[in-house]
Amino acid sequence: MNGSVHEVSRTTVFEGPIFAIDDIVLDLPTTDGTRARIRRQLIRHAPCVVMLVHDVPGDRYLIEREYRIGSHRFAYGLPAGLMDAGEDPEQAALRELSEETGIVPDDTQSARFDHVGAFYSSEGMTDELAHIMVIHLDRWHREDRHFDADEHVESAWVSWRQLLDTPVTESNAIIAIQHEMLRRTRPAA
Asked: Are 26 and 37 a contacting pair, CB within 8 Å?
């Protein structure tokens, strides 16, 4: 299908602190040259960062556990959070890492970023773009955490084997872990 998509109408049906929902009517081009009218709902969501954090000297990884409403359970995952306006992914990642875990690189040379990529969480229903990365920390220290008022997160360092044995089910976290698995299995250069 080629041609332009025409937005017929858009109505915001919900607006909350994290996301909004738009009801949208679109005219799409079809393969036979006609147009088809469809209706979709879009969850508008700020871009986010998801990071697998690697303590290089200890060869440990940071995991988190928090209640997730979508799966209605306490779930294991990786540090993550929304990007603020004007932040690039690395700035957002370091800010979120500090806020949620208190982990802060000692200086700019102490953190190396392995950018996995930017992926839509579910492009059929949301515009949330997740910037996924592995952060390799050579030197770091701990500061006070600064949770949002409704944020309750536990974090812990685990070995690579423990990370692989942890039941992580969030897709963006799995992408980061699989990326690191590939890096760990490559022969040293």
From this structure: yes
Same domain, 127 and 150: yes
Question: Pairing relation of β-strands 6-15 and 19-29?
Answer: antiparallel
Check: pTM over 0.85? Answer yes or no: yes
**In the predicted model, is pLDDT for residue 189 greater than 70?**
no
> What digits encode the pLDDT tens for the residues 82-91?
999 999 999 9
Token pair for 10: 């858009």
Residues sharing a CB contact under 8 Å with residue 65, sequence separation 6 or more, in sequence order: 74, 75, 76, 77, 153, 154, 155, 156
| Co-location of 73 and 114 in the same domain | yes
The reply to whether 1 falls in a domain is no
165, 81 Cβ separation under 8 angstroms = no
